[in-house]
Amino acid sequence: MAKPRIFISSTFYDLRQVRANIDLFLEQLGYEPVRNEEGEIPYGKENALEDYCYKEIKGVDILVSIVGGRYGNESNNKSDSISQLELKTALKENKQVYIFIDKNVLSEYETYLINKDNHTLYKYVDDKRIYQFIEEIKSLSTNNAIYGFETASDITKFLKEQFAGLFQSFLEDQIRIKEVSLIKGLEKTAQTLNKLVNYLSDENKDQSDEINRILTINHPLVERIKNELDIPYNFYIEGKEDLDGLLKARGYEFEGNTDRMISSDEEEPHYIWYKETNKKKFTLHIFKKIFDDDDKLKFIRKSDWNNDNFSLVIEENAWVPNKDDLPF
After folding, report:
1. Burial class of residue 321, CB neighbours in 10 A (0-12, 13-18, 19+)
2. What pTM was computed for the model?
3. Domain 5-150 is of which CATH architecture?
C-alpha cells in the first residue's frame, strides 16, 4: 500500500534530535519519512550530493521545513543554504509545505526588520541571511504559513492536527468523486438534449411524452436546484430516482415524505431530503404533485411553475465537534 512520503528539511547538527523525533512520529502514523542522513535518498556519481536531494523532493507528497539558528552549508548557487533551496524546490514543485521556525529566531526577526540596513549582530542566528530568507518566504502570496516551535513536540502536535484536516478533506473529496461519476453519466445525454431543445418550439411541447422528456433538461425544478445548490453544470432529471442520485452525491439523505401546510386549512404531500455539517443543517422540500404516480417528473411550463414547489431551509447547527477528537 502506498504511503505518504514526507521530506524532513533542516540543518543537521543543531536540529538532529528534532529531526529524529519527527521521523519517529511519522513512522508511527504509518507514513514514510525521508531524511538524507538515513540513506533514504539514492545518490549517483554524476552530480553533487545536494542535487539528488532536490530531485527526491519532486517525488514526495509533503515537505516539513525546520529553521533554527544555523545557516548551514551553502548550496551550489551560493545564494541559499542547502536547506533553504530544498524548501524553494518544494514550493516550485507546488508541494504541500509546513514551515517551522525556532521561536527565539522568530522573535528576533522583528528586530532584524528594524535594523536590516544596519550592521547588527544577532543573538539567535549565526548568519543574518536566515532572516533575509524568512522575509522572502513571508512575501510569498501562497503556501507560506510559518509556525514557531520550542520543542519537537510542538511540531508533531501541529502536524497531527494538520494531517487530520487533510484526512477530512480527503473524505469530502470522495463525495465529490461520486458526483463526478454522475456527471459523466449525464454529460452525453445533456449535450444531445441541449441541441434538441434549440429546435423545439412552444407549440410542440405537448405532442408526445418523448418530447416532454427531452424538455425536462430545462424543467423549472432543474433550474431551482442548480441555483439553490450552486451546481455549475447541466443535468437531467427524469424522475425521483435521478433526483435521489444527484442529491446523494452532494451529501443529502432522503428522509421520507409527509404533509406540509400550504395554507391555514390545506396540506400538500412533499418529499424531504436533509444534509448536516458541523455548522449548518440543510432541509430540502419538494412537493410530490410535480411527480406522477410512477414518480416521473411532470413537464411544467415556466409560466405555470410555483416557487413553493421547492424550498431549501438552512439552519445553524449548535453542535460543534471537539477539535481534539482526531483520527490519529
Report:
1. exposed
2. 0.52
3. 3-Layer(aba) Sandwich (3.40)
